[in-house]
Write a structure and sequence with these properties.
three-stranded parallel beta sheet
Length: 174
């Protein structure tokens, strides 16, 4: 019931957690009751209460870009060990045929909440950061320090097309 915040909160209060089908996709807008911000905040709220969330991102045509957008959004929302992520063309593990390299990135622990930055969103981790552009326009985010893309390129600014995400590793770990 992620599009019905009041009803969703009532269920989460008495349940151990929530199963969020069709949690995120490239069709997810930024605002509104079904929007990116609302979905991310609902997961954060449930996780902060110690409730589990199972975030299912179902797609008809899997792509690395969509998987990264959904996964980066999940990392924006995740609080503690209470959120789980799944991206595939159906809700069965047999259909999960692609393991993307960003799933294995060791970002460490979150260093706080996500923040709005330069038209997109950024969340810092102890060994990296995650960026998301859930808007319909390209954005360029200024980063607080040099980071390295998973392709090995060092960046201090990150350009993201609409509905894209990025996982970056810290070039220097303080």
């Amino acid at each position: 019931r992620s599009g019905e915040p009041q009803e969703s909160r009532a269920y989460v209060e008495v349940a151990d957690g929530a199963n969020c089908e069709s949690w995120m996709s490239l069709r997810t807008g930024l605002e509104g009751r079904w929007g990116w911000k609302a979905k991310v905040e609902q997961v954060r709220e449930a996780n902060r209460k110690g409730k589990l969330t199972n975030l299912l991102c179902r797609t008809d045509a899997p792509s690395e870009d969509e998987a990264l957008f959904c996964f980066a959004s999940y990392l924006m929302a995740k609080e503690g060990g209470h959120a789980y992520f799944f991206y595939a063309p159906a809700y069965k593990m047999a259909n999960q045929k692609t393991w993307y390299p960003f799933y294995d990135a060791d970002l460490g622990e979150p260093k706080g909440d996500y923040e709005a930055r330069d038209g997109g969103f950024l969340r810092l981790f102890s060994r990296g950061c995650v960026a998301v552009n859930p808007t319909d326009k390209p954005v360029t985010l200024s980063l607080p320090q040099p980071y390295t893309t998973l392709a090995g390129q060092e960046v201090v600014r990150l350009s993201l097309p609409p509905k894209r995400g990025a996982v970056l590793l810290a070039s220097i770990i303080p």
